[in-house]
Amino acid sequence: MATSLAAGLQAISSSMTNMPEATANIISEARENVQKQFDVKSTIQPGQVLPEFVLPDARGVPVSSIDLLAKGPVLITFYRGGWCPFCNLALRAYQQRLDDFKARGVTLVAITPEQPDASLSTTEKNELKFPVLTDNGLQLARKLNITWEQPKDLVGVLNGFGADLEKRHGNDSNEMVIPTTLLVDQKGVVRNVYAEADWTQRLEPQEAVNWVNAL
């Protein structure tokens, strides 16, 4: 039986228990605070129309929502970055179900605040066969209300882990995307939304397949 994404995410969390106490406290406090601040009801909701966008893919080629929707429904998953082990695991889990989405005429797309050179590295590392797009300055994510301001001490910790967010994002903002997955029908109407402030949690790919089956 295949291991669930949740089990893999939990394994990553468990493996991080040996970090220095001060570092663990910074991460834990930031995680608790964003969960308290974030209101999923304030995000884009089912029945609303997805804002149109044109975003560069991992090779810098512009990709428009209009062109994507012309092919059929679109499943979009927003992730923090290639430095995030939870994101990488989730991307690989969705890659494993790519044929299920394609068989149902659905295009899978990942969106990140990272610049194309970083997203290309993530694409290659995880052997992704679906588009990975760059949301420069989180302009699209802001429209969906799925962003938050990271505290400086957390950014310092992440940079200490080698994230180098300023370089990866192409700006010095501490803003970060909330991991979110949404299904949009061919008319551009959002049908399902999963937005979770706890970045160690993600939507199971099987649940996304269930969404698609219900279209």
Automatic annotation (TrEMBL):
Q: What processes in GO biological process is this protein linked to? A: cell redox homeostasis; cellular response to oxidative stress
Which UniProt keywords are given for this protein, alphabetically ordered? Antioxidant, Disulfide bond, Oxidoreductase, Peroxidase, Redox-active center
Q: Which domain of life is it from?
A: Eukaryota
**Any one Gene Ontology cellular component term annotated for this protein:** cytoplasm
Q: Does the keyword RNA-binding apply?
A: no
Q: What class of enzyme is it?
A: oxidoreductase
One annotated GO molecular function is: thioredoxin peroxidase activity
Q: Which reaction does it catalyse?
A: a hydroperoxide + [thioredoxin]-dithiol = an alcohol + [thioredoxin]-disulfide + H2O
Q: Which family does it belong to?
A: Belongs to the peroxiredoxin family. BCP/PrxQ subfamily.
Q: Note the PANTHER family from the entry.
A: SLL1159 PROTEIN, THIOREDOXIN-DEPENDENT PEROXIDE REDUCTASE
Q: What is this protein called?
A: thioredoxin-dependent peroxiredoxin
